[in-house]
Amino acid sequence: MKTTIIFSILILMIICLHAEDGHSLWLRNKSKGSVHVVCKKTSPTLTIARQELEKGWHGKNGETVLLSIQENNSIIGDGFKLTPKSIQANTELGILYGVYELLRRQQVGQTIKEEISNPSYERRILNHWDNPDGTIERGYAGLSIFWHQGGKSLDVTENDKKLWNEYARANASIGINGAVLNNVNSSPLMLTKEYLQRVKAIAGVLRHYGIKTYLSIKYSSPSLIGGLKTSDPLNDDVIKWWKNKATEIYSLIPDFGGFLVKANSEGQAGPQDYGRTHADGANLLADAIKPYGGIVMWRAFVYNPNDIDRAMQAYNEFMPLDGQFHDNVIIQVKNGPVDFQPREPFSPLFGAMKKTSVMPELQITQEYLGQSIHLVYLGTMWEEFLKGDTYQEGKGSTVARCTDGSIFKQNCTAIAGVANIGLDTNWCGHHFAQSNWYAFGRLAWNNNLTSEQIADEWIKLTFGKVAKEKNNSSYSDKNWQINFLAPVKQIMLQSREAAVNYMMPLGFHHIFSANEHYGPGPWWAPKGVRKDWTPPYYHKADSTGVGFDRTTNGTNAVSQYHEPLSSKYNDVKTCPEIYLLWFHHLPWNYKMKSGRILWDEICYRYDLGIQQVREIKNTWDSVKPFVDNERFTHIQNKLLSQCENAQIWKDACLLYFQQFSKKPIPAGIEQPVHKLDELINNDMKKR
Ligand code: BDP
């Protein structure tokens, strides 16, 4: 009897030890020895720093590490100076970041010399598109971690606090220092007393990890919840209302970060409703929170249905206002001029607004990239974006340098990522989607890092320990490096290109099925729907050819780019093929660099996409011996769906476009397995 019980307990312990639900993210390493931490000051943040060192120490057993807060002119903001045995910073938070960096280096086996690490952006912010009822706009990993119970109860539970603490820790470990707690399509409720109490509670947990809270606001709040007749930014009562609201917020949350605003965009209220400009609108809010050190992040995501080219509108709207924004306003610009597509050229606003602070907005949640079903590592996409050269101040004026203060003396520098986090045990729905949260944080801290380096770190931190347990190997183990690390890195690095190929190669964009933005829908254009919300607006396929003419003969969107880009994109011979159909409308038999005609090249690209996903799936199968069963199977199932989905994408797009090209699918390319009418009638199923 006794032995049976002991045996059962043992089995249970083994199961628990190996139960791998992904909740620990990249923070799973336990210390290998003891460390003696010396720090003269104490504070909640410094206590966390000390505990993290003790929990995750991988250095020499019994080593002493010195943490010191000391002015150093070469250290900027919350940066730090690192040696193998000491961390020096100007701020407590700098010490905490230094601790995480030291541990990361030890754990992934990178050497530490004496070095200084400063953040590229002062504010590194997650945008949560969470609604008061707990749903998340474009969320694919369960309900909100901040708001729940259909908004009925705002009470804060111990479970809430535990989760927020874990969330804050994960963010701090990669340098994220801000969180916007609610959807840009904001509910006015957020600014009411009851909701602000909960914001206060959240801020209370996040604060010790150096994370500031921000809120998205509804522009018409003064009339919706303030009882005023108008929300006109130049009206005295409205000005007073916002001032009082700011005082109320800061009395509850003294370190409140500020507001994020979506105004006059997709039906949201804004200053233009009262005949005022975006600058009038933003400055009103900026003045209200200026005395407390708050900022306003004003989104440039605006477009209206009647203009000829949606890709040009943000530039047209905001360029004339350059220089008119108050200095605590920062314009938040999506990476591309349309909307988080699998591939877009960067927005022409980067580097062009020279007298205004500008920040990039990336989307971590994969709204247009297979959501939480497809494995798509976004590090490569963001690297392409940040390293894109705007030429605005000569060669080398990359988007990174145009936004991080290297070129323009911005009063405020920041970067935002739309979060992919929800209540799912593994936070992000797909285990690999965690790498996108990780990559965002790492790039926000250092916009010079390569996507490969980030992938390497993430794999080691996320899968390394288990690999070690199962095969008795470690990061330095050659077998593990060759048969796990290298192939998994390869999977990640090619995953985004694969998605572009099977969804939208050669500059295609926005040909998704309606609203869901998951499966293909190049045909979708019901009567009465805004044209710029339908795929034919973007691909413009007809019997003569395909693609959006944005050259000087077309909408002239090319003119919004600085030379030599403008001419380069305008000329079909020099336009990079990855943007070909973004900028050009071309005949189906246009000769490509490969020697194929355009139609054949389109077929070839879609087919390549499928092959790449199959290869990714096979590679994943081959690493089974190195991964715990739980995560292995979870990912394997998702890859199976991804392969099926890629087939649907290819078949749908080729069969649809073939109606216009009237050409056969070239020999040597797998013929479609689906029928077009079936695909049109059954939206791609999500698994
Ligand atoms: C689009 C999303 C929509 C968002 C909008 C935005 O489809 O849900 O509200 O962007 O960024 O990508 O405001």
Key descriptive features of the protein:
Alpha-d-glucuronidase, C-terminal Domain, eight-stranded parallel β-barrel, binds beta-D-glucopyranuronic acid, TIM Barrel, 687 residues, 20 helices, five-stranded mixed β-sheet, alpha/beta, Chitobiase, domain 2
Task: Give the topology.
Blueprint: H1 2-18, E1 35-39, H2 44-56, E2 63-69, E3 80-83, E4 86-89, H3 92-108, E5 115-117, E6 123-127, H4 158-173, E7 178-180, H5 193-206, E8 212-217, H6 221-224, H7 236-252, E9 258-261, H8 278-289, E10 295-299, H9 313-318, E11 329-334, E12 357-363, H10 379-386, H11 399-403, E13 414-418, H12 434-445, H13 451-471, H14 478-503, H15 535-539, H16 565-570, H17 580-583, H18 598-622, H19 629-661, H20 676-681
Parallel strand pairs: 1-2, 2-4, 6-7, 6-13, 7-8, 8-9, 9-10, 10-11, 11-12, 12-13
Antiparallel strand pairs: 3-4, 3-5
Helix pairs in contact: 2-3, 4-5, 7-8, 10-13, 12-13, 13-14, 14-18, 18-19
Short structural description:
By secondary structure, the protein is of the alpha/beta class.
Written description of the protein model:
The protein is α/β, with parallel strands linked by helices and 687 residues long. It has three domains: 23-117, 2-Layer Sandwich (Chitobiase, domain 2), CATH 3.30.379; 123-453, Glycosidases (TIM Barrel), CATH 3.20.20; 505-548 and 585-685, Alpha-d-glucuronidase, C-terminal Domain. The protein is built from 20 helices and 13 strands. The protein has an eight-stranded parallel β-barrel. The chain has a five-stranded mixed sheet with strand order 1-2-4-3-5, covered by helices on one side. α9 links the parallel β10 (295-299) and β11 (329-334). α4 crosses α5 (193-206), α7 packs across α8 (278-289) and α13 (451-471) packs across α14. The radius of gyration is 26 Å and the shape is globular. It starts with a helix and ends in a 6-residue tail after the last helix. 53% of the residues are buried. The model has no long low-confidence stretch (mean pLDDT 94). It binds beta-D-glucopyranuronic acid (BDP). Beta-D-glucopyranuronic acid binds at residues 137-138, 184-185, 262, 301, 339-340, 367.
